[in-house]
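Archive transcription. Copying these from loose printouts into the bound notebook so they stop getting lost. Printout 1 of 2:
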Amino acid sequence: QVQLVESGGGLVQAGGSLRLSCAASGRTFSSYILGWFRQAPGKEREFVAAITWRGGSTYYADSAKGRFTISRDNAKNTVYLQMISLKPEDTAVYYCAAAQAPVVTRWSTYEYWGQGTQVTVSS
């Protein structure tokens, strides 16, 4: 059974940094894409970043480029999202998701989801 467990969220001031982790288990993820999405209250779930497990190719939303970095540790089966220069508009629940052949930026095409971790950025 696939499990994705996020951690690392919290409260941070604007301009601060956080690193989110997503520990994946339950299968071999070598053919998967792992993505980060976020959802703020009253808003649609939106794509943040994604990485291919095998080759490490990365994809970013425009809002994340230059501030967020997605990476993976194959030995630990963990994907990270390093976030710097955080803004109040980054406040959301951040979700990790996995799929074999998703439309990378479309959340509905991902098969597996974590429970989410709250990120709150104060101004």
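Printout 2 of 2:
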Amino acid sequence: QARLVDSGGGLVQAGGSLRLSCTASGRTLSIYNMAWFRQAPGKEREFVAADMRAGGSAHYADSVKGRFSISRDNAANTVYLQMNSLKPEDTAVYYCNAGGGFQSSIYSPSEVWGQGTQVTVSS
């Protein structure tokens, strides 16, 4: 089972950018669908973006389309989330997930999570 380490969060002003990283050990990420979720205080964890394995397509929540981009570097065993034009409503803890998949058009995560990284966007 892969062990995931999330990093790259921080405090940024609205309109700014951050790049999150999710680095795996124990398994190669290339065999997994990879996704990012986020959880704001008092809210449910929600899907942000997914990158499907073996050269499949990327998928995004409507709230981040056109602003966020998911990518992976298989040689580095790392998945990235580039976040541009950040808004205060993007403030949350962001979590990487390995091995989930779509079920009836909804992305269902696996039980393999990173520890999360805090993103705070000030207005």
